Amino acid sequence: MKVAKRVAQITPSKTLAITAKAKELRSQGYDVVGLGAGEPDFNTPKHIIDAAVQAMEEGQTKYTAAAGIPELKKAICEKLKRDNHLTYKPSQIVVCNGAKHALYNLFQAIVDPGDEVIVPIPYWVSYPEMITLADGVPVFVEGKEENEFKITPEQLRQAITDKTRAVILNSPSNPTGSVYAREELEALAQVCIEKKILIVSDEIYEKLIYDGEEHVSIASLSPEAYELTIVINGMSKPYSMTGWRIGYAAGNEEIIKAMANLSSHSTSNPTTFAQYGALAALTGTQEPLEMMKAEFDKRRKAVVKLMNEIDGIHCVEPKGAFYLFANVSEAMRKGGYNDVDEWAQALLEKEYVALIPGSGFGAPNHIRISYATSLEQLEKGIARIKKFVEGR
């Protein structure tokens, strides 16, 4: 049966392929250690769950406006003002079915056929596919490992053409955990202002930053940067609400309106009672978030130490999110593997450790390990990786 070209050209997810194989092995009784999860291993805080239950009991089970309930949009405006020094009106906010949905709608709203969007490597797996689905062209710029995988203003300037529509910035980053400093963002913003290109600022991991690092929204740096930036954020990572599917975008009113119109013809509205849960997340206690962050930090330090002790593997210490992006090129070479996909597949089949090969992120010499799992599981998994690499 024929499918549309736009769908046929999408690359299958490496993450889902590894996950499926891991599930198959578990079903056969094998003790598989999963280090690929892109979600916190904590349950959603109780006060958020209670708010959603109360909303359902009070009859909040019907349609809402496509862009979200007024109370939640107001709370998002207050959050952006409080945390990011950004002033928006509710008409500049659209609530979506997760930050991923917000990104998808954004590219559909701003990209015409042939428009180019600059995507730093390593990238989150869905960025190129979303751009392609909008008939756009992803243009890749490699963030060097020696620069903590971050791109420079010079690289950005060289990648811009008369077809460039936007650049994506993801800080803290999935998959690397890298965080752009204020001065780095200022330099990148200046290039975008000079060239008049949009900035897509994916800030979903903003609350998960360590070592005293500062999260800076590029939109806050100047009035000009504010005008060019669409901020993407959501509830999934900071509040362990991945299954609730609530995210949002903030920015230019015309673009936000277009995104809301698209939602009105595709998803109608974000799940009603989940919006009330999100409202409680933003306005209620932040203590569960701080406790989760402290545990991630503890795991981060342990994982960096253990992985860097393995001969043939080295990694840059991440400053944010809950991922470690490790260079395994030497280990691959010593083991006689042709590529990182083959290496990761062999690790899963021989030692029953599931992690994500960097090829899915545009980085064929790396792997992504998620430390959004227990310290016990992390230690067990890394011990198996060490055994696999050292051939014991």
TrEMBL record:
GO molecular function: pyridoxal phosphate binding; transaminase activity
Cofactor(s) needed by this chain: pyridoxal 5'-phosphate
Record-stated family: Belongs to the class-I pyridoxal-phosphate-dependent aminotransferase family.
The organism's taxonomic lineage, starting at the top: Bacteria, Bacillati, Bacillota, Bacilli, Bacillales
PANTHER family: ASPARTATE AMINOTRANSFERASE
Protein's recorded name: Aminotransferase
Aminotransferase class I/classII large domain residues: 31-385
SUPFAM superfamilies, sorted: PLP-dependent transferases
CDD domains: AAT_like
Key word Disulfide bond present: no
Keywords: Aminotransferase, Pyridoxal phosphate, Transferase
InterPro entries, per database record: Aminotransferase_I/II_large (IPR004839), AspAT/PAT-like (IPR050596), NHTrfase_class1_PyrdxlP-BS (IPR004838), PyrdxlP-dep_Trfase (IPR015424), PyrdxlP-dep_Trfase_major (IPR015421), PyrdxlP-dep_Trfase_small (IPR015422)
Species assigned in the record: Aneurinibacillus thermoaerophilus
The enzyme's E.C. designation: 2.6.1.-
PROSITE patterns: AA_TRANSFER_CLASS_1 (PS00105)
